[in-house]
Design goal:
The structure is a homodimer. Chain A has about 350 residues and is an alpha/beta fold. In chain A, about 45% of the residues lie in helices and about 15% in strands. The structure holds a DNA duplex (16 and 16 nucleotides).
DNA sequence: TTGAAAGCGTTACCAG
DNA sequence: CTGGTAACGCTTTCAA
């Protein structure tokens, strides 16, 4: 069973391969007409023959010749990560609506792996990259930029980089929102647990927290505890115990994983929220509604983040300038921030 | 900035393009030596020149010429789904260790979309497909098989299909395990909630449940409630209320999403587990350990499922026969199945 | 509106 | 071990 090529179609339809190529690449305009310099009747015949023969375009050949591939790469730090699992779906759908296929690969927060993955994608002639950069990933990303591959930074900014699209959450606002909600409810000794990842999203959420504390004359109470992926579990245990001993009111965690760890630790210690410790978590999860007390949390507009990142990238591929888009977070209230009595 | 080709390397190293091609494709054997019919010193020189010039292989060209692409496709029903988010990561890692790049795309449980996605992948010359088939997806999958593209069925079996690899959970055993755990703890009126998806994994878990009930002379109590994705929330509400009224002891849910819905409903109704209703859930989630009472659940060997599916596929690409692998589930005990008093 | 012909960068084949 | 050369299927001038 030989592969049907553009030539077979051309022969069968009594036209040149050029025409077949034109027809196969033509986009339909609003009226459903083929938008190409081909006689409509000829085009129709070509389409019919292609259909009848079961012609399937060979992207490898097209890509080799044209240097394009109708393919974009998405590089989160970890596909199985909660935040990205949701967003990747939105990216996929939006990309498909533009006629692009999406490849995924994780960077594992390792610059080395990010670099390899980008190399591999570039060797596959991908047309653009959406990436959530890990610390130290600038170099790999600059390699892509220098090779004229459009890049969109998603979720995490690298300020130094300029010729790239950016689709970010207003992380300062997110940090403020979380903190101010607690303050509004009467909490004063509010602390935060964060990762030492050195990525913009976390440090800006921290800034938002600090700003809110400062604006409300609570800066003396402000304290941020730091941990790493590897040590998060045991650090959280220590931090929570210590916080309760010191009479801390409330905790703000700027990622889902930290929120889950805090809840888990509190459950283990038999601590109640908001009685023993009020809580604001991050990102969406069934957990927030299923926990003994429902948990207030910051919600990112996943769908918009995903779709915008594709739109910005597609525009860049089309030669338009890189945009920077900052989206607003929302807060979903639960019992964990009920008014302090 | 022109792209460096195999020709540039050949010229610079004073050898033919053939040799460069050999060297670039050579795998290293266990001793780190290049496994190809090229003089080691020549090979070394070629490697150095390639490195120096910054040569990057053009996969499109290689794919066009060879018909292969070193790329495999993975098609879950939904990337953002909990079970697949975890497994996709294992697939990616294992595939990379074989030198394959992975593309993901969701089928959305729609045969039509599955078919489109498979077409698109085939046009990209992918070397093999790992798919969790949706109901009605046989046709699309057979198209791939007929085009001699190796296919591995993951998680869901289609018995009728023969020339495909299969990597499955022992779903009957999973259903039995869950049910027998409840029986062992003294529960007798055990019911199940399941989806009408018509996929093998669910119906086999149901069989396991039925078998366990039968083996323990509880078949008269056996009852399976059915719902659909769309109606699951309101159906669960009704089913749980009704079950409690009828004095049902325990519920077994064969997917994570159903488990979460049941927990959520019980929380809303103020029902306690195991007091009001004992529970066995499915798949792993933070929820099971964070819920007021920890929840007993069936655990699938994600890592093995992912890795085996890649191994079976790679073997098939290498011309070896299709294998069928069935992996054993485990059960993780929580408070939700404590002994009935 | 149509067609001929020149590649894109690689691998496969055949000779040496 | 090494090298020359013809494809692979498509897009892209250029010319008619």
């Amino acid at each position: 069973m030989k592969r049907i090529t553009i030539r077979d179609v051309a022969r069968e339809a009594n036209v040149s391969v050029t025409l077949v190529s034109f027809v196969m690449n033509a986009k339909r305009d609003k009226d459903g007409n083929l938008d190409c310099p081909v006689n409509p009747e000829t085009a129709k015949r070509v389409l019919e023959v292609a259909q009848r023969l079961g012609y399937q375009r060979n992207f490898a050949a097209a890509s080799l010749r044209s240097g394009r591939s109708n393919t974009i790469a998405v590089i989160p730090n970890d596909i199985s990560n909660k935040f990205f699992a949701g967003i990747s779906r939105c990216i996929e759908d939006r990309a498909q609506s533009f006629g692009y296929t999406v490849f995924f690969a994780s960077s594992d927060e390792q610059p080395q792996k990010l670099s390899e993955v980008i190399d591999s994608f570039m060797a596959h002639n991908i047309d653009g990259i959406i990436v959530a950069p890990c610390t130290g990933g600038e170099e790999a990303i600059e390699k892509a930029i220098n090779a004229k591959v459009p890049v969109v930074l998603l979720d995490r900014d690298i300020e130094r980089l300029d010729n790239v699209g950016k689709v970010l959450l207003d992380d300062i606002e997110a940090g403020k929102m979380a903190t101010e909600e607690l303050i509004k409810k009467g909490y004063k000794k509010i602390e935060m647990i964060s990762y030492t990842l050195g990525i913009s999203s976390l440090s800006l959420r921290e800034s938002g927290y600090r700003k809110a504390m400062m604006d409300n004359d609570l800066y003396d109470n402000a304290k941020i505890h730091y941990t790493t992926y590897g040590d998060a579990e045991k650090d959280t245990e220590r931090i929570i115990k210590d916080a309760v001993n010191r009479g801390v009111d409330a905790i703000f965690t700027p990622t889902y994983s930290l929120s889950a760890l805090v809840l888990s630790e509190m459950k283990r210690l038999g601590l109640k929220t908001p009685g023993d410790l009020a809580l604001v978590g991050f990102d969406e999860s069934d957990i927030y509604s299923l926990y003994e007390t429902t948990v207030t949390h910051i919600v990112q507009p996943l769908k918009e983040l995903g779709e915008k990142s594709v739109e910005v990238l597609v525009n860049m591929i089309g030669g338009k300038p890189a945009e920077k888009i900052v989206l607003k977070p929302a807060i979903k209230l639960g019992g964990s921030t009920d008014k302090l009595k």
